[in-house]
Amino acid sequence: MSSRSIILSDSARAALRDSSSICILTGAGVSAESGVATFRGKEGLWSKFRPEELANIQAFIQNPELVWEWYQYRRDIVTNAQPNPGHVALAQWEKRIAGFTLITQNVDGFHQRAGSRRVIELHGNILRNRCLKCGNIGAGQEVPFKEKVPLCDCGGMLRPDVVWFGEMLPAQALNDAFAAAEAADLFLSIGTSAIVHPAASLPEVAKASGAFLLEINIEPTVLTPMADLFLEGPSGKILPELFDEWMAQRANVE
């Protein structure tokens, strides 16, 4: 996919070569390289609001039109953006090894659009709706916000299927994520600050279970001292190179 310029240690090459269970955690930095760099626009109407003021159930109950207008604005940004080479590399990686789990804190669906199928969404998906009344996920999924709040067939108001402030992460997704981290022999933490729990505990769990911990980020994080290898730079450049290196290492043993 690319010419390789990343520098890997012998232990990193061995981890790539011998890995049979790979677990990936992605954060906002991966989406930032697709042009979704901020939680909200820096200018205009939305600069007047803090995310906490809109991304919670109380705000939705009090002013659902305002909350939906904000989310439609964000949906439009996501829809008009494209997965980047990092997303594509992860999708290609998944196709070539059975033991591959991708966990994401992002809600934009870029991983799926790039071709990933085994994706655990810890924070939901902004392009998917959920009924506030009956709980049906995907209800009225194709109905965008225009002037009125979209409704479910049951009559309940639809909301974006994302985890809001004050809400618990989906239990099944969280359980599956920790199980994958515990089973991994190679764990990649990519584009995440590693400070938002419980997701921030996943690399620690993998490391404690014996996984080789590789971090990719544009700057060091609190996780960096714990990582077996830190690759500094944009994931859209590093991941295609790392995937090529993995392919080369696997070819040496096949």
Question: Which terms would index this structure?
Answer:
single chain; alpha/beta; six-stranded parallel β-sheet; two-stranded antiparallel ribbon; elongated
Account of the 3D structure:
This protein has helices at 10-18, 28-32, 51-54, 57-62, 64-80, 85-95, 110-114, 171-183, 201-208, 235-251; strands at 22-26, 100-104, 119-121, 124-131, 158-162, 186-190, 212-217, 229-232. With 254 residues, it is of the alpha/beta class. It has 2 domains: 10-36 and 83-123 and 169-251, TPP-binding domain (Rossmann fold, 3-Layer(aba) Sandwich); 45-80 and 130-162, SIR2/SIRT2 'Small Domain' (2-Layer Sandwich). The model has no long low-confidence stretch (mean pLDDT 90).
Largest beta-sheet characterization:
6 strands, parallel
| Class from helix and strand fractions | alpha/beta
From the N-terminal CA to the C-terminal CA, the straight-line distance is 20 Å
- Work out the helicity level: 25-40%
Strand content: 15-25%
CATH architecture of the largest domain: 3-Layer(aba) Sandwich
Number of helices: 10
Strand order of the largest sheet: 3-2-1-6-7-8
Mean of the pLDDT scores? 90
CATH T-level fold name of the largest domain? Rossmann fold
The ordered string of helix (H) and strand (E) elements is HEHHHHHEHEEEHEHEEH
CATH superfamily label of the largest domain: TPP-binding domain
Under the CATH scheme, which class of the largest domain?
A: Alpha Beta
Task: Output the radius of gyration.
Answer: 19 Å
Domain count: 2
Shape: elongated
> Ranges with pLDDT <50 over ≥5 residues?
none
Give the total of beta strands.
8
